[in-house]
Amino acid sequence: MAAQAIHQFAECITCHAWSPDHSMIAFCPNNTEVHIYKFIADKWEKLHVLSKHDQIVSGIDWGRSTNKIVTVSHDRNSYVWTQEGQDWVPTLVILKLNRAALCVQWSPKENKFAVGSGAKSVCICYYEQENNWWISKIIRKKHESTVTSIAWHPNNIHLATTSTDGKCRVFSTIIKGVDTRGSQGSASADWKFGEQIAQLDLSTTWAFGVRWSPSGKTLAYAGHSSMIYFVEDVEASPAAQNLALRDLPLRDILFVSERMAIGVGFDCNPLIFAADETGLWSFVRYLDERKVTPSASKASQLSEALGKLYGQSRQGSSDTVEPSKPRGGAHENCITCIVPLRKGSETIIKRFSTSGLDGKIVVWDLENHVAITK
Length: 374
Hints:
Belongs to the WD repeat ARPC1 family. By secondary structure, the chain is mainly beta. It is 3% helix and 45% strand.
């Protein structure tokens, strides 16, 4: 499959997000700024530079309903940006963190957002109408190390996190006056703010890239040991499946449907995972397929030699060795971020974008290339 669009925006991109109508893109070029571009007359033009942070911007999310942008940074602060005319006006959110803010995501209803940090804590931020400001409640003393990624459940209450302590956790974020207890289902009504619903100890290494399926029935996250974990029915009776990857670890995951997911990471090439009718997950293929010429370099010759050496079976050796996945595709360095380009309320994602350490943003079109199962 070929990428639909590739654009070199910077030398390195930390994170990115799209406007609600996908006409504009906001990203951090690995510095203290957020750049907003718009596609005008067949080319990308820079419209705005958001510059309030004084250290690297590590997370961006653009609300689809509110059209508000939220940013977080290593400076331990967060800003909510509101468009007023031609300008973006920032509002400071006091996170009360003593370490860097690393990731951020609006909740499905966009009445709050979550921030993961290097302070072993998660901030749940919401707007307090009486005082006209954004405040945060902190989930403390649950993580043993840095929170690397966060993901909201479709019910707007449960929040999944991954950490460098190797664990994936699910918390209740219900806030009086912000959430309605009856709206998230009877099973969740008894949970209090910050209460841990589940803890998954599947990984023995750092964990990254947690994500829920569209229905919220399946949770997926990645381990730095080149593993990906799929967990069904997290709250009731978790049933986990572990998949070992033959290449490098993943950094982020996206469900494009209930039974198909895309993983991205250090291999610079998105991976497709799918579940069969019995719910068994497996690796399908790399998304950016490229033909590779055997023995193209000394490195590939060494790789083939090692493959023959360690690929020998007890019955005898084989002359056919599956070549390593080719590099140098749409991305040329680690992919750190994957963002859906969702239209309306659709649950099946047909397009998504990736960005990474090569400074490129790539838009992928699945509609005519991959059979997406519901």
